[in-house]
Write a structure and sequence with these properties.
This protein is mainly beta and 170 residues long. It has two domains: 93 residues, Tumour Suppressor Smad4, CATH 2.60.200.20; 61 residues, no CATH class. 0% of the residues lie in helices and 37% in strands. It has no helices and 15 strands. The strands form four sheets. A six-stranded antiparallel beta sheet has the order 2-1-10-9-6-7, with no helix packed on it. A four-stranded antiparallel beta sheet has the order 3-4-5-8, with no helix packed on it. Strand 1 and strand 2 form a beta hairpin. It starts with a strand and ends in a 34-residue tail after the last strand.
Length: 170
């Protein structure tokens, strides 16, 4: 799941973006559904699909800058590590990085990337955040954490690995 990083004092707060819908950037913790009549947000981010990939687009007024530049048309597809400034007070960093998480498989039967065993709806799995390969992660079949890297790509498999990038890296 993509997120915005925002600094409060000396601490970074992460605002996760929903896989669907929209989020205000004046207050990243408040969804667009929380708008009151007459509210006029300076910026909002919208999730949309482009092929199999989720993307995030920014709609904003003239007071928003991305990577220091104003958006002449008020719209942009966000990229990993984009820096956003809203007015003079709010600075956010967009990250498209996702963490590996255990989830319940809900798709059609398919094969595990590591063991080639069948994956069926209702099983616990991990979907690689880099290549989208699906791995078992049950008490009997711990295919995701079995090896130090994903069966297909170089994504590390510890579930507590954390984010590879933070705004402090800039």
């Amino acid at each position: 799941m993509a997120q915005f990083w925002q600094k409060y004092g000396e601490q970074w707060i992460i605002h996760e973006l929903p896989p669907k819908g929209a989020r205000l950037l004046d207050d990243p913790s408040r969804p667009v559904a929380g708008l009151n009549e007459g509210d006029s947000p300076a910026a909002m981010v919208l999730a949309f699909k482009s092929g199999a990939q989720a993307r995030w687009g920014l709609l904003c007024d003239s007071g928003v800058r991305v990577n220091g530049d104003p958006l002449s048309l008020g719209i942009r597809v966000l990229r990993h590590q984009d820096a956003l400034r809203i007015g003079t007070d709010t600075e956010l960093f967009f990250s498209g990085e996702q963490l590996a998480r255990i989830s319940t498989y809900e798709g059609e039967p398919t094969s595990c990337a590591r063991c080639s065993g069948e994956l069926i709806a209702g099983q616990s799995v991990v979907v690689c955040p880099i290549c989208a390969a699906i791995h078992h992660q049950t008490t009997d079949l711990s295919c995701w954490t079995y090896a130090p890297k994903c069966a297909i790509c170089s994504q590390p498999t510890p579930l507590d690995v954390g984010y590879a990038w933070t705004p402090e890296d800039l």
